[in-house]
Design brief:
Number of helices: 3
Strand content: under 5%
Shape: rod-shaped
Distance between the termini: 161 Å
Length: 164
């Protein structure tokens, strides 16, 4: 079970923390790994003695932070620019494809008109053929009728000569 600390205990811990924070770490107990971790994190090795050093350190810190932020935004901007370029490429491909579809549609319309014209011409030729076939059949039947009529006339003429 955990029991919360009393106010007096918290005050004692705080006083010890402040006292130990002011004292330097013994040289023979310094941890090399701990130092390198602080250096990697950008910790300040030297103690700040006066306000001028603090302001100098603070300006350097602000500059470093601004550089990091600027770098993030430059990276973000370059990523966005790549996306814009990709989108522009896709739009060009879509436009090209749309133009090709319009060309295909135009060719299809022209082909449909030609097919309709050809179909109409074929229908006209079929009607002409049927008329010509009818006319040819009439011509074929005409000589046989003429021969029948001629034979009847000649038989009437013989009969008329016989009677006369």
């Amino acid at each position: 079970q955990k029991v919360p600390l009393t106010g007096q205990q918290n005050a004692a811990i705080s006083a010890l923390s402040h006292t130990l924070a002011d004292r330097p770490f013994p040289a023979h107990l310094q941890d090399a790994d701990n130092d390198s971790a602080f250096e990697e994190a950008g910790a300040v090795d030297a103690a700040l003695v006066n306000t001028h050093q603090f302001y100098k350190w603070f300006v350097q810190l602000e500059s470093a932070m601004k550089s990091e932020i600027d770098e993030k935004y430059r990276l973000y901007e370059s990523t966005l620019q790549e996306h814009v370029n990709t989108c522009d490429g896709i739009l060009r491909q879509v436009d090209d494809t749309l133009n090709l579809f319009e060309q295909v549609q135009s060719l299809h319309s022209r082909a449909a008109i030609r097919i309709q014209t050809l179909h109409d011409a074929c229908d006209q030729l079929l009607m002409d053929k049927q008329r010509l076939v009818g006319f040819a059949e009439a011509l074929r039947s005409h000589p046989s009728e003429i021969q029948r009529a001629t034979s009847k006339f000649s038989s009437f003429a013989r009969l008329a000569q016989f009677l006369l």
